[in-house]
Amino acid sequence: MRRLRLALAQINTVVGDLEGNTNKIISYIKAAADYSVDIIAFPELTITGYPPEDLLLKPQFIKDNLEALKRIREEVWDMTVVVGFVDRKDDIYNSAAIIHNRTVVDVYHKVFLPNYGVFDEHRYFQAGSRFPVYEIGEVLIGVNICEDIWYPEGPAHVQALKGAEVIININASPYHIGKGGFREKMLSTRATDNAVIIAYVNSVGGQDELVFDGHSLVIDENGFAVCRGQQFREDLILIDLNLEAVFMKRLHDPRRRQKVLAMEGDEVSDRVIVTREKTGKERVPLPERTCTVMDEIEEIYNALVLGTSDYVSKNGFSSVVVGLSGGIDSCLVATIARDAAGSENVKALFMPSPYTSDESREDAVALAGNIGIEMIEFPITEIYDTYLSRLKAPFKGLKPDTTEENLQARIRGNILMAFSNKFGCLVLTTGNKSEMSVGYATLYGDMAGGFAVIKDVPKTMVYELCRWRNAKEGRALIPERVLLKEPSAELKLGQKDTDSLPPYHLLDPILKAYIEEERSFQEIIMTGCDAGDVRKVIKMVDNSEYKRRQSPPGIKITQKAFGRDRRFPITNRYRSY
């Protein structure tokens, strides 16, 4: 029986940390060697980290990445290594090196370059045009990169018709809600259509707004997932593949024979001999592995924790500070921060004003105690009164309005940034996607900070995440009253969010339709939404672009987040209502 022992190295790299990434790659190669694997595959652009963006415009960066590849090459002996890097020829290419016995045997260049959503690969790379098949002992392998597998007639299809029994697809595929299930269905279709085993290895970790979820997969020739990598964690996935099953599947597929015949003489695919050594030798048994798939809310929470943890650590911070108001958003952010950085590395500032309720103080104290973080009470009333006194003359004869409300938020923002400067901690802002969408936030106030943890989390989902976290803990980690009381910014007497906005259960569907689904005013109304609410919300969204442009980066968890995904002009007179 022909067998192949495969390892998928699902690792967390740091963009630009060529030495650190290289060291990690070598350590995983050594770990795989203990199991005598035939092939180990690493994610897309493993050496540079993904996405390297305009680092790719620096010739020295390209040169240094090639030097790192040489160092990896020297550590490879009797296994085959597939590793992502930037190749340089007449142009630069998003590439996979195929290494064996201290030699780069061949290089595959990514064919389909994504240029939508968060991707800008046409800005940097030239596209490849070869679909090689690699001979490793008695096994034929196809290697391709990320976007290449999404095209039904793309490289994987050609490689399979040219004899590849296993397709190794290396990826840096960022997370958003629902992507894991959609991705698995696509891979299952590719595997069954081509009677091939697909080994899909993905990056894991946070990179600015993006989170890579790992969740690498091996899909057999019948379209079933036979092995999974962990979600949101590094993992070394080991599996023995039965190549005879692929051969048997193809014996019963006459359609494939006709397609193979039609491709005779096609020169886009060539065969490259990597090694003549036979695979499937006797070796130590592999450890058993079980890996369940998280439900949607658990996925989202873990994405937020990983994105926060990596943003903090990869940018050189060891601690964070959060403005804790006693409201649901700040309670969720503080809890995520504790899970991401550890309770000893989280400070909470409770900054009451004349309008802060006793209930908010009690809830803030309870939350801080429940999650074990330090809470410092820093009243702002005296500072606020000083502002009002100094502004009394120029504001004479004018009624109080949002100016006085925003002063409180900006005082708090200044205090948070002072703590950040003095103690070297990162300020985590607490605004959610619903608020960011309609501009229900104060520029240079509650928007002031280094990282916006829940910037892409709608308000209704904030409640779901809090309930899930409490259920996971088995107690009300986030105080129950926080989930029940009506949301309020508490910047004036009796204030409620609904004074300015539709209730969130009505607001969020409008926002999703307009922002994520690009639906028109008329289309949204046809779903049953109130016309007045829709018109008001669209106007608020359009008028708040200048605010969002000045907000800190935040973790992408929806299909369309503000920033990389949605790029609207600030100066813009188009109106759709």
What does this structure look like?
Helices cover 37% and strands 18% of the residues. It is built from 18 helices and 20 strands. The strands form four sheets. Strands 13-12-9-8-7-6-15 form a seven-stranded mixed β-sheet, covered by helices on one side. The longest helix has 22 residues, at 402-423.
Short summary:
The chain is of the alpha/beta class and 577 residues long. The protein is 37% helix and 18% strand. A 7-stranded mixed β-sheet has the order 13-12-9-8-7-6-15, with helices on one face. Strands 5-4-3-2-1-14 form a 6-stranded mixed β-sheet. It has a 5-stranded parallel β-sheet with strand order 18-17-16-19-20, with helices on both faces.
Key terms:
20 strands; 37% helix; alpha/beta; elongated; 577 residues
Strand-residue fraction?
A: 15-25%
- Report the span from N to C terminus: 66 Å
Largest sheet features: 7 strands, mixed
The level of helicity is: 25-40%
Integer-rounded radius of gyration: 27 Å
Tally of alpha and pi helices: 18
Mean pLDDT: 94
Spatial arrangement of strands, main beta sheet: 13-12-9-8-7-6-15
- Secondary-structure-based class equals alpha/beta
Number of strand elements: 20
Low-confidence stretches: none
Shape: elongated
